[in-house]
Design a protein that fits this description.
This protein is an alpha/beta fold. The protein is built from 11 helices and 8 strands. Strands 1-2-4-3-5-6-7-8 form an 8-stranded mixed sheet, with helices on both faces. Helix 2 crosses helix 3, helix 4 runs antiparallel to helix 8 and helix 5 runs antiparallel to helix 7. The longest helix has 17 residues.
Length: 278
């Protein structure tokens, strides 16, 4: 899918913008991927929605500034992209690190959020051990390049079933991750390590929300995802059997079916259940 470029915000961002319809869906990729993470979803959703999928700063063809950045800054990048495209409100969705950006986007720009998709992510901040590990990996990327980071992450990202039965998914991830610049990897790791605690935000979320995870996700275990997902009033929480941390690529048909069903209303945006219901 052709990328487009916009240079009106804090950085130059490349993005995919396809489809048309009453609903705009913004899809924010995880770490250390690009908008191509959403390759199975974009054409499926573009049949009835406008779909915008940016490359976050430093990834894909988007610019990486010299200075460090935060997850909040990534959320503002997305808001500035929507400004430039004339998009007032949208379903804002993200996977893994993209989910961290979604939480910040809702916190900072909630009037622009029509609905949320939170996939294979978590609202809690890093533990001290996790922060230390991210710092170690950032140093590894800077010293040895992206490949050692890719090799370390792949077994954590994909379920055993996916690695055995769908080797093409692992190949696609390795290609995408291996193309990431070491400094982009390091900058994103440090941004994630310093991210805010989004747990207090959960009961304040007052838009339709779909929470999706894989039953075999070792990074965001299913029981943890269920627990925090139920703290969002009216949220729909769904688990995809056999998928790991990249459920949209591992089981794309199941993921797309959930998202299509979530967007099944006449307006393309699902109705919000009364607060306090599950």
């Amino acid at each position: 899918m052709p990328l487009q470029e916009i240079d009106g915000g804090a950085v130059r961002l490349n993005y995919q913008d396809v489809g048309a319809g009453p609903t705009t869906v913004v899809l924010i990729h995880g770490f250390p991927f690009t908008s191509d993470l959403w390759r199975p979803q974009i054409p499926a959703l573009a049949e009835r929605c406008r779909v915008v999928a940016p490359d976050l700063r430093g990834f894909g063809a988007s610019q990486l500034p010299a200075e460090p950045y935060t997850i909040a800054r990534l959320a503002d990048d997305v808001a500035e992209l929507l400004d430039a495209l004339g998009i007032r409100r949208a379903l804002i969705g993200g996977l893994s690190m993209g989910g961290y950006v979604v939480f910040e986007f809702f916190q900072r720009h909630r009037q622009r959020v029509a609905a949320l998709l939170l996939a294979d992510t978590r609202p809690d901040p890093d533990s001290p051990e996790a922060r230390s590990n991210r710092t170690r990996m950032a140093k590894l990327a800077r010293a040895q390049g992206s490949q050692p980071v890719v090799d370390e992450l792949i077994p954590k990202l994909l379920s055993a079933w996916t690695r055995a039965q769908k080797p093409e998914v692992e190949r696609a991830l390795r290609d995408m991750m291996g193309a990431a610049e070491p400094e982009a990897i390091a900058a994103a790791l440090m941004a994630m390590a310093a991210r805010a605690d989004s747990r207090p935000l959960l009961p304040q979320i007052d838009v339709p929300t779909l929470v999706v995870g894989g039953t075999e996700d070792s990074l965001t275990p299913a029981e943890q995802l269920r627990e925090w997902g139920r703290r969002i009033p009216g949220a729909r929480v769904e688990l995809i059997e056999g998928a790991g941390h990249v459920s949209n690529l591992e089981r794309p048909d199941a993921f797309n079916a959930l998202l299509r069903d979530f967007l099944g209303g006449p307006s393309g945006i699902p109705a919000q259940p009364p607060r306090g219901t599950l």
